[in-house]
Amino acid sequence: MTAENVPPPQIGKGIFLIASPELDAGLFFRAVILICEHNMNGSFGIVINKPLDFELPDEMVSLGNIVNPNVTMRASGPVQTNQMMLLHTQKERAEQILEICDGVYLGGDLQFLQEMLSDETGPPIQLCFGYAGWTGGQLEREFLDGSWFIHPANEEYIFNTPHEKLWNTLLRDMGGKYATLSMIPDDLSVN
User: Fold this and answer.
1) Best CA proximity match to 126, nearest among 70, 77, 182, 178
2) Per-residue pLDDT tens digits for 3-37
3) What is the pTM assigned to this prediction?
4) Nearest-5° Cα angle at 163, 19 to 62
5) pLDDT for 36-78, tens place per residue?
6) What tens digit of pLDDT does each residue of 125-161 get?
């Protein structure tokens, strides 16, 4: 198929929501959200490009014992920020995980987490705190109002693109007017 024959992506599981430059405050400023579920009743996703730095309770896991160099923490949304979800590349334990897009999974229990954190050659894992949620039809309205752009998600973008460059990289890769938007400085007052 040529690029002209490829249908545009639609909102659904495994799609990135990319904040438009008009969303200029708070957690959603230049946010990239991975949609994990989308249906007529609503949607939920996790912000994947906002780092989080704090200590986890020792009863959960001791950060001093993490030997996996591929572990990051994310502020993933304003809803239930005390809830942690695991985003990773391990297909094991299929009964505990949800495939979001090819090679990217959400879920796992505490034993799975501890095993992955203590593996020196462990897979990439994002510890995601909170999520973003929309009621039925709300996300579609926001998209039609121009608050979000959409792009297919993939493992490369999620785990191998530096979080601080993900928003710009996705817009640049979309080309055209989106590539132009990727060059807008964070703070327009320094322009």
Assistant:
1) 70
2) 454 555 699 999 999 999 998 878 999 999 999 99
3) 0.89
4) 125
5) 999 999 999 999 999 987 666 555 555 556 788 999 999 999 9
6) 999 999 999 999 999 999 999 999 999 999 999 999 9
Give me 110's structure tokens.
Answer: 């505490």
Q: Which amino acid is at 20?
A: S
Q: C-alpha distances in angstroms, 184 versus 20, 146, 177, 179?
A: 11, 17, 12, 10
154-157, Cβ contacts within 8 angstroms, sequence gap of 24 or more? 154/101, 154/102, 154/103, 154/104, 155/89, 155/101, 155/102, 155/103, 155/104, 157/16
Residue 115, number of CB atoms within 10 A of its CB: 15
Q: Which residue has the tokens 């785990």?
A: 159
